[in-house]
C-alpha cells in the first residue's frame, strides 16, 4: 500500500476520499483524552467498510476463552476493551436522499488531525444521486478540560439547492466487539430516553456490571436561528432526536452535538443520569468554541512538556509528533486503575490493556515528559494488582511469590498461549525494573518504602522458586521459558530471563538494605508484614552467585538460550527477500528453529542493564545478534537504535529509527486498520531521546551524549528532570541545553558536567 | 467411579439401570463391523443424558479450524468423524404414555454385549406412570456377513395390561456432531420418503459431497400376525412408518427393523436408492434369525484367529477379549481407504481416523491375527496419501520429501497445535518402521518394490532436509521437535526422533540395495521415477554417520533430549499422590519443565529397534526412565510391559499390563463416555503376545520367550505366521505350541528351535 497522507509538521492530512484507505484513516485519525476515545468514523451514515469504535477507558468485558486445545492453567476469560455506545452519530437525509459518502460523488475531501490543538476536522463536497451538491465541515474532539465530554460541530452548506435536511442525532448502544470470540453482544440495554434536544442511553455489560450512560444534546441552527426538534424516538439501547432543518443554497446549517459519557467506574450507578446531566449542562453552557479553545490550551501544555522538533525533515517531524500525540491521548496518568493498551483508543484488537510494553517501553516517555505522579501511577497500578499476581503464581503451582500476567485488565491473566502465558515470565522482571527505573530517574526513593518493596519481594520470591538447582553442574538454571524474542519458545536458560531474574534479586536486596538504613521502622514493618526470612535472602544471594548464564566463550558473547549456537547460524542479509517478513512466509516451526530473532533479547538486557556492561561487551553482542534480528516486533528497533547510538553506529541507528517512526502513518505492517501501535510509539520517542539524545540518568546525574543524523538540520526535545524542564537542541555543530524553569540542575554533556542555572542556556560543541 | 460391569469370560454385562453410567455404557457396548458402527443408544426414546452416535466409516467432514492464536502452517480444517443418520430409532407410546427409561420405573435391567457372537442384547421391565408394566428384550447387530446391514429385534410383552402401542420406526438424519467447532450441522437433506413398511432418508454433507442413504423396513407382529402400518410421515431429513400395534397381556409383540446403510464412497450417487433396495431386500429375505446366525459364524472365524484365553482370571479374560473384539469391530482391512480411529465407532471425539497409533500400536495385532492383505492395506493407505504428505512438507517450507500428517482422514493434516502438528514429526519414522515391521513379519519383501520404496525414499528425503549440520561440532542435529513424550515440547535432539530418522535412512538404503539385487529392473524404474541421485544417498550415509545422539556418558543412558539431565531429576514415587495424574493437577508449564514422562520415548526406540541394543543397554535405560514415567498416555504401559518382560521384571510387567487391560471397562480415565480407547487396546494385546508371550520375528524366524504372571493358571494366544496358524498356551510349567494348519513351521522357544509340523503340538518346560 502506498502512503497517502500529506506531510505536515503539526497535522495529519488526508486529501481526496479513497474508500480502501478509510479503515486505516479511522485508526490514524482517532481522538482520545485518556478517559475515552473514538475512531475517526464519520458522523453521518457510511454504508461502506468501517470499524465503528468508541471506547471508555477501563470498561472491559471477560469474553470466554477460545482455544483449539485446552492446557491446564489457561484463564477462562480474556478481558477485552469494550466497544461502546456510538455517541457521534448523525443520520442526515437531504431532500429524501441519505448523505452517505459510500454512495455519493465526493470531491474536495480533506481529513485533518490537528495535533497541535487536539481535534479532528473533515470537509468534503458531496453530490447526491438527486443532484443536490453540498459542502460539509465537521470538527470534533474529546475534551481534555472536561474529560467526560465530546463535542461535534457539523456544518452543512447547500451549493446548488434549497430544501430540507432530516437530521437524526442519535446514541446507539447496540454495539458488538469486532473481536468477540463467540459473536456475542456484551451490552444489555437499561434505559433509553429522549426529550426536547436531549437523549440518553444507559447500557450495562452482561458481566461485571459496568454501567455506561451516554447523554447528548443537539442544537441545529440556520443562520443563527435555532431549529426545534421535530420528534424523538427510542428503542432498546437507542435514542434519537430528529430535526427537519431548512436548507438554503449558500447558507450554512450548523449542528452542534455535545455528549457526556459517564460510567459507574467513576460515579455511583444510580447517580449516572444526574452526573451526566451536570456535565452536559456545563459543556452546553460553555459552547463549542470555548470548549475548543480549552482543548487548544490543554494541548499547548502537553506540547510544552513533551514536544520534539526535527528541523530539515518534515516527514520525521510529523512522525514523531504523531507518536507523542497518541501517547498523550492514550494515557494521562490521573487514574491508577488505567494503563496503556496496545491499540489505545484506536481499535479493539488484542484486548487487555496492559502488557510488559508499559514498563519496558512506555514508562520512559512519561518519566521524562510528565509530572512524577503520572509514571508513579503506572507503578501503583501493578502494586494494586499484587494480590492477583500472587493468585496467578499459586494457580500455576508456586507456593509463594507473584507472577504478573502477560495481558491484563484487572490483574487477572487474560492470555492463552502456553508458550507465552506460562513461559514468557520475563515480564515479571520488567515490572521490577520499572521500579528501579522510576526511582533512578525521579530520585523518589520513598516509593520503595511506600509500595515498591512489596512488589519487589514477591517477584523475588517467584524467581527463587522458578529456578532450580542442578547438582550435577552446581548451578541454578531456569527451564521452559520464552524470552523477549518470541521466535524461540520454551527454551532453557534464556540469558535475558536468567539475567533479569538475578538482577531482580540483586535490586531487591539493595532496596531492602537501603530501606533498613534510611527508615528502619518502615523496614521492620515490611519484614513483619511480608514475613521475610533470612533463609530467603540467603537463598537469593546463593542464586545470584550460582545462576547459570549461557555464554559462548570463543565469541565472547552471551548465548541467547541453551543450544542457540547449535542452530544454523545465518544473518538476515543472507536471506532472499522473498522470505521476509518471516511471519508471513515461514511456517511457525521453521521460524522457531531458525536463528532469526523477532526482537531484542540479549540486547534488551544490554539496554536495561546498560551500566553493568562495558562497551566492548555490548559491541560484541550487538555485532553478533543484530544481523540475525528481523525486527518483526515493532518494539525491537528502538532498543537497537539506542545501542547503535551508544556504539557510534550512526547509519544503523538511523535505519532502526526509521523502521517505527512512521509505522502507522505509512501503514508499514498493513494492519493499521485494526488500530495504531500505541506502545511502540513510545519506543520511537526513546530512539530520539535516549538514542540520538543519548539521555541517561546514572547516580542521580543526567547524561546527554547526543548525535544528530546527517539527514537532519537539528532536533530538539523536552524533558523534565528533578523539577527542571529542559529543552535540548542538537544541531550538526552544537548541543544547546536550555533550562526553562527556576530550578538549578547539572547536566553532563558528552560526559562533562555543566551546571545549568534557572532559565539559562548552555551550548557545547558536538 | 466404581466399576459396575459384571465379570464374564465372553460377555460384557451391566445389571440394573444407573443413569449416571449410561453414557459410559453407550460407548462400551458399541457395535461395529468395519463399515459402520453404532453406540449403544436405546432404540426407544430416552430423554436423559445420552450421546446418540451412528458412524459410517470414511464419511467425514472438514470442520473449520478453531484456535486461540493462529500460527502459519495450520490447516484450515479439521476432518471429523461424522455422526450420521440415526437408523435404530423406535418411538414407542404405550396406551398414550411414551416408553422412556429416564421417566419410567425400571427393574431387571440387563445389557449384554455378546462378544462371542457379536450382538448387543438388552432387557428390562418398565413400569410407566399410567401403571402399565411391560417387559422389553432388544437385540441388535451390524452384520459382518452383509456389511451395509443393521438389524434389530425388539420384543414387547405387556405384563399387566392390554392395549395399544403406537410404534414409530424412524430414520433421523438431522444430526449434529457433539464436537462441532461452531455448532454447525454438517448434513443437508436430499430426499426422505416413506411408503408401506419402508422409509428412506438421503443426506449429503455440506462439504465434500458425501451422500448417505439409509433405508429401512419394519415389521411388527403380534403372535406371528403381521400388523399393517397405520401411516407414514416425512419431514426434512426424517422419515417414519407408524404402527398401531395391539398389546395383549402376556403375549409378545415383536418388532423387526432392518436397515441398509449405503454411501457414495462405495456406490454411484445416483444408484444409492437402488443399491439400498437390493441390500434391504436381501436382508429381509434372510430374516433376523438367519442374519444373526451368519453373524455368529463370522465372529467364530475372528475368534479362531485372534482369541486370547486367560485361565484363572475372569477379569483379565474379559478385558483382553473386549480389546480384541473392539479391534475387530473397528477395522477389518478390506478397504485401504479406511484406517483405525482413536475412538473407532464408539464416539466422535478427536476427529480424524489416523494417528501414528496405527503404525506403532495397531499394526502388530493385524499382522499376527489376520490375513496378510489386512495389515498390508494399512501400508497401502499411507502409500495412497504420499502425494498429500509431499504437499504437507512443501507447505511447511521443505523443498522435497514427505511429512505425513499427525491426524488425518484423507491424507491432509487435521491437527492444529504447533508443538504437535509441526514438531511431533517422529510419526514419519513410525510410518517407515511399519513397512519394515510388515516385511519382517510376513516376509513379503515384494511390497518394497511394489509400493514401499517410494514411501521410504520420500520420508528419507524429509529427514535429510530436517536435520542440519553444526560445523562447530561436526554433527547433524535436529532442532524443534516433540518426541513421543508429549510432556516435553519443542526440544532439540530428541534421542528417539534422531534415532528413528537415522534408522529410516539406514533401512531405506538397505531396501534399495535389496531391491537392486533382487529386481534390478524394478529398482531402475523407481530410481528414474523418484529421480533419486547418488548425491542424496551419499548425504544419507553422512547423516547416519554424523548424527548426534544425546547421551549421558556417566550413567550409560541415552538422553531423552538436549538438557534433559539439567532438569530436576525425580522419580514418580517421590511425588505425593495428590499430584497425580499430572495432567489434571499441574499447569502445563510445570509438566513441561518437570522430568516426568507421559509415555515411552527413549524406551519406544528400545522397543522398535530392540534387535539393535544389548540387554544391558536396555536395562540401564529402562531403570533410568521407567521410574520417571507417569504413563498418562494409554499407549505407554504396553511398551514398558514388553521391555519389562524382556528384562525379567515380572511384577513391573504385570503392573503395566493391568494399567490398560480394562481401561474402558473400568473407565479408568473417567472419559469412556466420549468413546473407547481403541488404539490402546492393541497395545494391551501387544503386552500379552509380545510381552508375556515374548513373541518376536528376527531374520524370518519366530521367537517365543514366554513367561506367565503368577496370578494366572494359563494363557494362550493365536497367531498367524507365514501361512501357519499357531496356538501358544503357556502354563506355570509349560509352553505348548500347536500348529493348527497344514503348513510346517519352525518356532524358537526360549531361543531353541523346534520344528513344528502340520497339525502337531510341541511342549517345552517353562
From TrEMBL, chains A, B:
InterPro entries: 6-hairpin_glycosidase_sf, 6hp_glycosidase-like_sf, Gal_mutarotase_sf_dom, GH65_N, Glyco_hydro_65_C, Glyco_hydro_65_M, Glyco_hydro_65_N, Malt_Pase/Glycosyl_Hdrlase. It holds the Pfam family Glyco_hydro_65N. GO terms for molecular function: carbohydrate binding; glycosyltransferase activity; hydrolase activity, hydrolyzing O-glycosyl compounds. GO terms for biological process: carbohydrate metabolic process. Substrate binds at residues 356-357, 598-599. The active site is at residue 486. Residues 13-265 form the Glycoside hydrolase family 65 N-terminal domain. Residues 695-754 form the Glycoside hydrolase family 65 C-terminal domain. Residues 321-686 form the Glycoside hydrolase family 65 central catalytic domain. Coiled coil: none annotated. SUPFAM superfamilies: Galactose mutarotase-like, Six-hairpin glycosidases. Belongs to the glycosyl hydrolase 65 family. NCBIfam families: PRK13807.1. PANTHER family: GLYCOSYL HYDROLASE-RELATED, MALTOSE PHOSPHORYLASE. This is Maltose phosphorylase. The lineage of its organism: Bacteria, Bacillati, Bacillota, Bacilli, Bacillales.
Amino acid at each position: 500500500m502506498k502512503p497517502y497522507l500529506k506531510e505536515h509538521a503539526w497535522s495529519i492530512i488526508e486529501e481526496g476520499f479513497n474508500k480502501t484507505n478509510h479503515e486505516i484513516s479511522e485508526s490514524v485519525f482517532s481522538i482520545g483524552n485518556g478517559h475515552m476515545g473514538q475512531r475517526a468514523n464519520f458522523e453521518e451514515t457510511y454504508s461502506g467498510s468501517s470499524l465503528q469504535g468508541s471506547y471508555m477507558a477501563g470498561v472491559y468485558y471477560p469474553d470466554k476463552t477460545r482455544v483449539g486445545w485446552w492446557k491446564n492453567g489457561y484463564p477462562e476469560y480474556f478481558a477485552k476493551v469494550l466497544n461502546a455506545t456510538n455517541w457521534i452519530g448523525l443520520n442526515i437525509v437531504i431532500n429524501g436522499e441519505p448523505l452517505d459518502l459510500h454512495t455519493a460523488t465526493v470531491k474536495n475531501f480533506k481529513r485533518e488531525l490537528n495535533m497541535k490543538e487536539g481535534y479532528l476536522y473533515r470537509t468534503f463536497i458531496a453530490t447526491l444521486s438527486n443532484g443536490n451538491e453540498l459542502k460539509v465541515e465537521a470538527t470534533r474532539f474529546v475534551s481534555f478540560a472536561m474529560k467526560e465530554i465530546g463535542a461535534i460541530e457539523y456544518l452543512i452548506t447547500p451549493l446548488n439547492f434549497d430544501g430540507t435536511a432530516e437530521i437524526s442525532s442519535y446514541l446507539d448502544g447496540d454495539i458488538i466487539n469486532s473481536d468477540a470470540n463467540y459473536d456475542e453482544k456484551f451490552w444489555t440495554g437499561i434505559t433509553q430516553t429522549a426529550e426536547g434536544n436531549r437523549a440518553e442511553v444507559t447500557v450495562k455489560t452482561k458481566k461485571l456490571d459496568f454501567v455506561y450512560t451516554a447523554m447528548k444534546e443537539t442544537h441545529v441552527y440556520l443562520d443563527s436561528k435555532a431549529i426545534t426538534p421535530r420528534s424523538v424516538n427510542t428503542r432498546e439501547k437507542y435514542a434519537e432526536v430528529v430535526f427537519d432543518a431548512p436548507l438554503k443554497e449558500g447558507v450554512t446549517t450548523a449542528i452542534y452535538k455535545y455528549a457526556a459519557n459517564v460510567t459507574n467506574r467513576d460515579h455511583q450507578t444510580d447517580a449516572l443520569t444526574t452526573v451526566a446531566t451536570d456535565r452536559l449542562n456545563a459543556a452546553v453552557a460553555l459552547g463549542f468554541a470555548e470548549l475548543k479553545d480549552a482543548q487548544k490550551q490543554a494541548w499547548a501544555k502537553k506540547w510544552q512538556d513533551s514536544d520534539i522538533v526535527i528541523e530539515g525533515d518534515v516527514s520525521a517531524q510529523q512522525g514523531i509528533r504523531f507518536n507523542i500525540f497518541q501517547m498523550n491521548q492514550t494515557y494521562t496518568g490521573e487514574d491508577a486503575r488505567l494503563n496503556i493498551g496496545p491499540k489505545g483508543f484506536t481499535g479493539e484488537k488484542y484486548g487487555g490493556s496492559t502488557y510488559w510494553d508499559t514498563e519496558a517501553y512506555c514508562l520512559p516517555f512519561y518519566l521524562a515528559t510528565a509530572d512524577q505522579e503520572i509514571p508513579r501511577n503506572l507503578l501503583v497500578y501493578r502494586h494494586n494488582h499484587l494480590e492477583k499476581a500472587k493468585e496467578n503464581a499459586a494457580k500455576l503451582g508456586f507456593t509463594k511469590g507473584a507472577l504478573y500476567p502477560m495481558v491484563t485488565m484487572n490483574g487477572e491473566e487474560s492470555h492463552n498461549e502456553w508458550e507465552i502465558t506460562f513461559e514468557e515470565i520475563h515480564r515479571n522482571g520488567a515490572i521490577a525494573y520499572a521500579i528501579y527505573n522510576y526511582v533512578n530517574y525521579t530520585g523518589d526513593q520513598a516509593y520503595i518504602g511506600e509500595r515498591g518493596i512489596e512488589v519487589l519481594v514477591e517477584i523475588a520470591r517467584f524467581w527463587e522458586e522458578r529456578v532450580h538447582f542442578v547438582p550435577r553442574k552446581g548451578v541454578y538454571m531456569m527451564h521452559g521459558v520464552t524470552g523477549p524474542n518470541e521466535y524461540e519458545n520454551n527454551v532453557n536458560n534464556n540469558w535475558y530471563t536468567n539475567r533479569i531474574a538475578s538482577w531482580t534479586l540483586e535490586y531487591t536486596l539493595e532496596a531492602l538494605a537501603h530501606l533498613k538504613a534510611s527508615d528502619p521502622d518502615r523496614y521492620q514493618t515490611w519484614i513483619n508484614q511480608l514475613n521475610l526470612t533470612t533463609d530467603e535472602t540467603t537463598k537469593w544471594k546463593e542464586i545470584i552467585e550460582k545462576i547459570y548464564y549461557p555464554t559462548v566463550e570463543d565469541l565472547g558473547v552471551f548465548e541467547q538460550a541453551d543450544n542457540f549456537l547449535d542452530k544454523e547460524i545465518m544473518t538476515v542479509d543472507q536471506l532472499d527477500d522473498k522470505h521476509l517478513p518471516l511471519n508471513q512466509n515461514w511456517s511457525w516451526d521453521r521460524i522457531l528453529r531458525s536463528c532469526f530473532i523477532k526482537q531484542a533479547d540479549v540486547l534488551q538486557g544490554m539496554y536495561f542493564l546498560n551500566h553493568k556492561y562495558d562497551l566492548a561487551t555490548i559491541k560484541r553482542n550487538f555485532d553478533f545478534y543484530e544481523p540475525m534480528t528481523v525486527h518483526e516486533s515493532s518494539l525491537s528497533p528502538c532498543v537497537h537504535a539506542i545501542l547503535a547510538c551508544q556504539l557510534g553506529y550512526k547509519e544503523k541507528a538511523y535505519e532502526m529509527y526509521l523502521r517505527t517512526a512512521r509505522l502507522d502513518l505509512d501503514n508499514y505492517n498493513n494492519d493499521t486498520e485494526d488500530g495504531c501501535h500505541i506502545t511502540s510509539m513510545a519506543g520511537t520517542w526513546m530512539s530520539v531521546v535516549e538514542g540520538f539524545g543519548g539521555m541517561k540518568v546514572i547516580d542521580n546525574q543526567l547524561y546527554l551524549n547526543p548525535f544528530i543524523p546527517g539527514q537532519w538540520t537539528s532536533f530538539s526535545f523536552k524533558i523534565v528532570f528533578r523539577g527542571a524542564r529542559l529543552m535540548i537542541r542538537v544541531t550538526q555543530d552544537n548541543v544547546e541545553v536550555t533550562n526553562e524553569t527556576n530550578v538549578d540542575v547539572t547536566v553532563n554533556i558528552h560526559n562533562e558536567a555543566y551546571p545549568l542555572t534557572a532559565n539559562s542556556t548552555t551550548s557545547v560543541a558536538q
